[in-house]
Design goal:
alpha/beta, Urease, subunit C, domain 1, binds fe (ii) ion, 14 helices, 2 domains
Length: 425
């Protein structure tokens, strides 16, 4: 073996497992592996996970916080207006530089696959060209999947559909949309139909910003599920945000969720952004705005958590840490039972990997040796501590490392350091 990682704990709870790596792939995974490695790492019981996957991000806007000014109200609509002000000033070099910097952060956080939407409403398609270049450059260490996103509306914005088609021809992977932002409900439904037909024709995946609204009558997810089924796109379509579902009538939702499950449409919630942008017109009680995550999961729908934004016109926080995303999702959805907490970890690993259609992802012989060793003893502890990523491996090579969390204490009669891990110290 090129490398053997000894004494790991796996996300499913198995302990004392050794992982043997050969030629960039997992070659064996078993207790007390007899094979020796050229290099050996003692994980000492630490959790080893496949890398984090972000199913929903905006890399064309990331790290632009404060350009050309900050979002004073902090609202979604001021954010969209601000992005409109920034767009004409974007330069390709600056965009590439910011995106590469974000990818550095991502790798340090063990986040090795990102689906990013890229705005196609600028006729120059400058952001598309820039992110295609970023995709090429980061390919050795990070899988970047691009979604053609008509931010200003497919039918509402002149040339948007043509630009979207051009961007697909240039190499963008996934068809995006934003039906709730079209001029009318009918136009929203029409945009869903057109985009799904285009995706079916081209054999592409679909991921739409869908019903990012507090309006309980915003029901484009219903149309998305219908078109998915009609066109045979099952397993290739995701609805992002789906926040209107938070406010929908319960009787209607009891019909809707089985339809989503039946159509094989995945749901992507963005807890950090949903909790901050939704419910803005409410006084009190103030809605949380996140879609119905545990109910969708219980119905068998694939649900992932996305980061959506980091330091951009919509959000002045974040550092590419998917554990922070899962931590917020767990709280907002009140997913505090043991299995529920564990499924929040799945929502930033296996489930988004499936939504992106990542090849060779996972912890089984034959999978890519893309791994994260965390300073935690379980998936729940990883979320609780937003645990340091001790080692991040890509194809069996270390691409990032960080020290364990440690604080020295200066207290009489108490230990000399604080160990935050339960069952240790
Ligand atoms: Fe988004």
């Amino acid at each position: 073996m090129d490398l053997v990682i000894r004494n790991t704990t796996l996300p499913d709870g198995r302990t004392g497992i050794d992982i043997g790596i050969l030629d960039g792939r997992i070659a064996a995974l078993a207790p007390q592996l007899a094979a020796r490695g050229v290099r050996e790492i003692d994980a000492a019981g630490d959790l080893v996970s496949p890398p984090f996957v972000d199913a929903h991000f905006h890399m064309d806007a990331t790290l632009s916080y404060g350009l050309p000014r900050v979002n004073q109200s902090g609202t979604l609509l001021e954010g969209i207006a601000l992005w409109g002000e920034l767009k004409p000033q974007l330069s390709q070099d600056a965009l590439i530089e910011r995106a590469l910097r974000y990818c550095d952060w991502a790798v340090a956080r063990g986040l090795l696959a990102i689906r990013t939407h890229v705005d196609v409403c600028d006729d120059r398609l400058l952001a598309v060209e820039a992110l295609l270049e970023v995709k090429r450059r980061v390919a050795p260490y990070l899988d970047l999947q691009l979604v053609a996103f008509p931010q200003d509306g497919l039918l509402r914005s002149a040339n948007a559909f043509e630009n979207l088609k051009r961007s697909i021809d240039m190499g963008v992977d996934v068809v995006g949309g934003i039906p709730h932002f079209e001029r009318t409900m009918a136009q929203g439904a029409e945009s869903v139909r057109l985009l799904c037909e285009f995706a079916a024709e081209r054999g592409l995946r679909v991921d739409m910003h869908c019903d990012e609204s507090d309006d309980p009558m915003s029901r484009h997810i219903e149309t998305l599920a219908y078109e998915t089924q009609r066109l045979g796109l099952q397993g290739r379509v995701a609805g992002s945000h789906l926040t209107s579902m938070h406010s929908m009538d319960n009787y209607y939702v009891s019909k809707l969720i089985p339809l989503i499950a039946e159509s094989g449409v995945a749901a992507i919630a963005n807890p950090l952004i949903n909790i901050t942008l939704q419910g803005r017109n409410d006084t009190y009680p103030k809605r949380r705005g996140m879609t119905r995550v545990p109910e969708l999961m219980a119905a068998g729908v694939d649900v992932a958590f996305g980061h959506d934004c980091v330091l951009d016109p919509w959000y002045g926080m974040g550092s590419g840490d998917m554990l922070e995303v899962a931590h917020m999702g767990l709280h907002v959805a009140q997913m505090t039972g043991l299995e529920a907490m564990q499924s929040c970890f799945t929502a930033i690993t296996e489930t988004p990997a499936r939504i992106l259609g990542l090849d060779g992802y996972g912890l089984a012989p034959g999978c890519h040796a893309d791994l994260v060793i965390l300073d935690a003893g379980s998936t729940v502890e990883a979320i609780r501590l937003r645990a340091p990523r001790r080692l991040v491996l890509r194809r069996g090579q270390v691409v990032a490392e960080a020290p364990a969390a440690a604080s020295r204490l200066h207290l009489q009669g108490r230990p000399g350091s604080a160990d935050f891990r339960l069952g240790r110290g």
